Amino acid sequence: MTSRQPSLHHQALEILGRRIVTGDLPAGHVMLAENLEAELKVSRSVVREAVRVLQSLGMVESIKRVGIRVLPAHAWNPFDASVIRWKMDSDARGAQLRSLAELRSAVEPVASELAAQNAPFALRRELLQVAEEMARVGRQGKLERFLDLDTRFHALVLSGSGNEMFATLIGQVAETLAGRTTHGLMPSQPKEEALQWHLDVARAILDGKAAAARRASAKLINETIEDLSPQWAGQPRVFVPLKPLSTQG
User: Fold this and answer.
1) Residue 153: which of 182, 195, 189 has the closest Cα?
2) Which residues in the chain land under pLDDT 70?
3) Structure confidence by residue, pLDDT tens digits, 134-145
4) Residue 249 confidence (pLDDT)
5) Which helix (H) or strand (E) is 95 found in, with range?
6) Residue 69 carries which DSSP code?
7) For residues 91, 182, 237 and 103, what is the CA-based torsion angle, rounded to 10 degrees?
8) Sign of dihedral through CA atoms 221, 223, 229, 231?
9) Hey, how many other C-beta atoms are within 10 angstroms of the C-beta on 187?
10) Calpha distance 31→35 (Å, rounded)
11) CA 32 remoteness from chain centre
């Protein structure tokens, strides 16, 4: 069976998105649709659709009689999976890993605690089964299968929290885990402590031990931050400007 080729729209979106993230198309740069047609060798409708998606991500804006202007990084949608993937594939990888690790440290221990209190039994049981298989394949060094299981594990925790806003982070966590594997930031064999902490989280959730689930999850995330922190040393942070406070009483 042959794999499907990406559509022209998808190819155009990938090229432009990556060029914006890398700074090849810097903030303030103005593009013209007709120039993009010629450069990318695609139709006007393909360019229009790619630009529409980039606009929805906060990466560009269309200005009448001016063109398509690239917006600064603080305007981009930081939760979009494509934006995360493009950053992970660029020199901004370290900063992206830091932002996601800090987000996970704030959310996942709480999600684990909530899952221990609220998750359906079937989800709790699957979580333990996934953690047990992670331990087996991790010790065998089967990283591709381990990634699939690790992604499923964290998706189950976020979903099991019963908080729909936490569950929306499943895609972002998946992109982080995939990016770490793709870029060789995972050990060839997962640490034994990490395998055990996954099991500890799963068992605590299964047994309804909320505080224990939160503690084990925090250990897991803190270990990730400690391992990855050299990747973001010296990387700048993104500060989102706020609107001035109204002076009207």
Assistant:
1) 195
2) 1-4, 249
3) 999 999 989 899
4) 58
5) helix 93-118
6) E
7) 170
8) negative
9) 12
10) 7
11) 31
Token code pair at residue 117 = 């209190």
Q: Which residues contact 192 (CB under 8 A, 6 or more apart)?
A: none
DSSP conformation class of 31 = E
| Cβ pair 54, 83 in contact under 8 A | no
* CATH numbers and ranges of domains, the chain: 8-75 (1.10.10.10), 93-229 (1.20.120.530)
Give the residue from 109, 190, 192 showing the smallest Cα distance to 154.
109
pLDDT tens, position by position, 31-71: 999 999 999 999 999 999 999 999 999 999 999 999 999 99
**What SS3 class is residue 87?**
helix
Task: Determine the Cα–Cα distance for residues 50 and 189; give it in Å rounded to an integer.
Answer: 40
Alpha-carbon distance 176 to 170, whole Å? Answer: 10
d(CA 156, CA 119) in angstroms, rounded, equals: 9
Task: Map tokens 């929805």 to a residue.
Answer: 56
**What distances in angstroms separate CA 112 from CA 120, 171, 246, one per listed residue?**
13, 17, 39
**By CB neighbour count within 10 A (0-12 exposed, 13-18 middle, 19+ buried), where does 115 fall?**
buried
Q: Which residues contact 102 (CB under 8 A, 6 or more apart)?
A: 225
pLDDT at residue number 3 = 52
